[in-house]
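Sequence only, no structure available. Ideas?
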Amino acid sequence: MKRLAGLMVLSAVLFPSTALAEETVTVLGLRSATADEQVAAQMTNALRQAASASTTITYSGRENQLSQLLVLFDCDDATPRCMREIGRNLNSTRLVYGLIEPESGRSDADYAVTLRYFNVDSGQIERDLRELVPRGTNAQGMAERARRFFNALTGTVTTGELSISCNISGAQVLVDDRDVGTTGDDPLVVQDLDAGNVDVEIRSDGYIAYHQSVSIEAGQTRRLSVELHAEGGGGGGTSETVGQGGSGQEHGPDWVEPQPQPRRRSLAWLGWTNIGLAAVFGGLGLWSSLHVNNVRNDHRLAENYSSQGDICEGSVIDRSADGVGYSVSEADDICGTARTLQALQFAFYGLSAVTFGIGLWLVLREMNRGEDADALRLHVTPVALRDGGALSASLRF
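Reply:
I predicted one. Tokens follow.
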């Protein structure tokens, strides 16, 4: 009874209540055969970090120790029956566990890491591996090895291939400054490259070196076709080739081929459009001025304001009955329209001046970009005045 009560209390601590488990992986703390618990803890933490960073599995986040669980479940060893019971209590579908021990009996021996990937549902070990970890490996080296171990156990693909074809046989190929071989008649295939960008350099005596950053995707083969050009030779080649142009200048290994710049579109059409709009606004302004002038010269309308002298100023007299003028409402409508157009004519003239100035500037600007750039220049200079400002423009032929 005491043992059962102890198991119930410890289970409440180690196995908090959760919903039905999804496809989750739990990394159990590695056991150490030589009481070197520090190395075992470092490898365990590195494996858990690799599991947490993985995008293909769900990491449970639990940090249980295998040795404690074996005691809790009264197991002499990590048998399938015992590991299946542990996995179910942890609400996990996969377990990663293992042992770390010296490779040999020497005091300076490297460590051997044995790992298991256990399927809780089937009660079977899906994969296992045994790898060496050099004694004195630093934290970064431990993390890199743990990531590789974890990916191998879970079957996660994190690497891709690079297939390189070159017009020159025997050219040396370096990937991230690592010599991976030479080019030949068949493409050179570089395997097990981590997903991401890698620096590719291809060089051969008498040819301009190729140097470029290439993106590698996990589980994919990136094909790279490169054409090397002789030093001092002519240009040409594909977008991935190096040495375009015939300057004959030797570029160093860090030189990256400049990408062609897109051709700039001319803005002359916008300038002519603005000049056209200026003509339209100017025409509207002129039409408004003519309409206002017609109202001012309307002798019939003048009869409605004969006592005041100025048309559309002062009181309106109803002369419609006399047949020589308009009614009050008609006179008000005519004068109201005239006042509106009188205000709009200044707006139209202003818009005409602005759009014409912009259009002229754009047209001359595009003309200045041609071969006769020095033959024509338009300079616009802002001038600050006491009561405002102005623009000073000069055109040089």
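The CA atoms of residues 141 and 396 lie 70 Å apart.
Hope that gets you unstuck.
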